[in-house]
Structure formats: C-alpha cells, structure tokens
Amino acid sequence: MKRVYNFSAGPSMLPLSVLQKAADEMLCYGESGMSVMEMSHRSKHYDVIIKEAEALLREIMNIPDNYKVLFLQGGASTQFAAVPMNLMTKNGKADYILSGQFSTKAYKQACKYGDVVVAASSKDDNFSKIPETTRESFRPDADYVHVCFNNTIYGTKYNYIPDTGDIPLVADMSSCIISEPVDVSKFGLIYAGAQKNMAPAGLTLVIVREDLIGNCMDITPEMLNYQLMADADSMYNTPPCYCIYVAKLVYEWIKELGGLEAMKKLNEKKAALLYDYLDSQDYYIAPVSKESRSMMNVTFVTGSEELDKKFPAEAAKAGLENLKGHRSVGGMRASIYNAMPYEGVEALVEFMKKFAAENPKA
Ligand SMILES: *Cc1c(COP(=O)(O)O)cnc(C)c1O
Q1: To test ligand 1's pocket by mutation, which of 77, 127, 176, 335 has the most ligand atoms within 8 angstroms of CB?
Q2: Cys-Cys crosslink for 192: which of 56, 177, 179, 210, Cβ 3.0 to 4.6 Å?
Q3: Are residues 130 and 81 part of one domain?
Q4: Domain end call among 202, 228, 257
Q5: Beta strands in the chain (DSSP E)
C-alpha cells in the first residue's frame, strides 16, 4: 500500500489508525449488519454514534455545559452568513478583524446583514502577522467581534485570546480546532469546517454559548438557525452522518493519545523542527512574523519563482505531496495538522536540505 506524507491544507491527512478502524467497520458496524453510510440517522446505532461524538468532543475540549455543540453542513463559509444572522440581532452591529482571506470573506458577508466595521487589519503587511488590538479597538455596542484564529493561507495564528471585554468573541477555528487546548469559556462562538483537522469534508462544527442564540433574524433560513438546530440535536434534517462518525473516531484517537495537552506537545514538536530549521539557514525565507506563527500551516519561499515552482514538484516525487502554497500567495506551505506524524516533518526538513544543496541560487 502506498501512503505519502500529505501536506495538503484541506481536505487533509487523517490518522492512519482512524482510517483503519473506519475500513474495518466499513461493511458492518458493530452488530448492525450495515455500514454507517447506510444507516438511518434516526436508528439506535446512529443515535449512539452522534451522542458519543458530542460527549467525546465536550470531554477533550472541556466545553462548559452552557454551550451547545452543533454538527452542521455547508462548510465554514456558510457560517460567514449564519453568524451575523443569529448573533447580530441586539444592536445590529459587529466588528471584524481582518487577518487574511477567510476573515475578509466573513466580513464581506456580514456586511449584508447590518452595520459591520473593520476594527483592525494586517492587509498592509500582506497578512504576515495578526493585527494588534485592545478593548478600545471595538465599538462597545458591537454584538460580537469576529476573528479568524488560524489563517490557513498565510500561516499565521492568534497565539493569545484577544481582549474584547464583555463583547462576545466569535472565532473561525477551521484550521486549528483540536490542535491544542483552548479556553472555550472565553468565546461566544467557535466554528470550524471539519476537513482540516477533524473529519472528511462535509461537516461543520459550531460551539455556541446558549444565551447568544434564540434571537435570529426573521430572514434566517431554517438550516442556519442555531436554536432550531440545537433543539433538534443537530437532526433537524439528515446530518452528515458518516463525517460525524469519522470525527468521533478522531476524538477517540486524541483521547487515547492523552487529550489536547498531549496533542499540543506533539504539534509543538513538529512545528519547532520545521521553524528551527527555517531560522537556522538563509536559503528559505519564512515570511510570517515570529509572534504570529501558526503551528498548523507553515509557509516559506525561496525568493525565486523558478525554485518555488520546482520545489513542490520535486518534493512530490519524493513522496511529500501538496507543498505548493495557496494560489494567492505562492511559495510553499506545509500543513502539519494533528494527523501528520513527526517523521513526515523530519522527511520534509531532510528534503529541504537536499533541495537547497542541489539547487544553488544564481
Ligand atoms: C478552509 C477554511 C475556510 C473555508 O472552509 P469551507 O469549509 O471550505 O467553507 C474558512 N476559514 C478557514 C480558517 C479555513 O481554513
């Protein structure tokens, strides 16, 4: 069987043991005599799966009881509209921090639904760092402040929780969810597309403080109404059943590893290996400010368009796939999510050394 080191930003690697378990159970789940793919979402077998998924996620993320966990569809991009429709309903105002393309998209969608302003932006720095803010950066009557916690395309991350005072903080955590512990109680709402670090594409996770829902705009489609989804235990309609099942296997895998503290240690070790190498040489350039570095997406360039093109092509031949940077920024990006083993990053660093030696700059 051929398995490469897959550095894709999303959909991305899943833990091998999770894939094996899913394969083992593919034709017959437990005593059910059928695949999870074939099951009614209202069946007793599936009921156990979705309840366990939620219970495990609550356990590993230490989610307080006054938060709802919703398993939804439509990707993180659908949340760009769902968040304002559900939460921008007290004063009709929201403040957005722009730290990359996804937060800019979220901001543009929110503008359709109310009085939305940019509280801070790092656009002038090519989004190479997280914009700095204080409480005073935000309008005191904003219904929420929106941030993108890990900027997948640029390789930046909030390495602290921004202070918004009493204003609920909403965070897009698509590319850093369950990579390390976070204090959920510091957030009003967390959302994440599952395909970066949690499950196959098709599942979107929303974790929301109960008191913030139940007051959505009249125009809100039923499918985007958090209260309705919460009341139906994410089963208002057919949920993404198989994705939720794989997410459950991933949560089990994390729990067995020792939870998010252990996960964080592994992720830190992988990221340190790559960043330490980047900092120790001058062939590759890491464009991101050190204090804003992402542990999940590591970006670098050679400074030569030709070599930037050659690198991912040569790497793929060596079994290191999907290292090409996002089409909007170029260069290289290594996404080293939870499922990327330490050996994968070791192999990447060895390849980088070899490539640098074999391809001197003019
Ligand atoms: C991938 C990504 C998105 C878009 O997710 P979809 O599920 O494709 O809509 C949004 N935000 C962040 C931070 C992402 O990494």
Answers
A1: 77
A2: 177
A3: yes
A4: 257
A5: 5-6, 67-72, 93-98, 115-121, 144-148, 150-151, 156-157, 169-172, 189-193, 204-209, 297-300, 320-321, 332-335
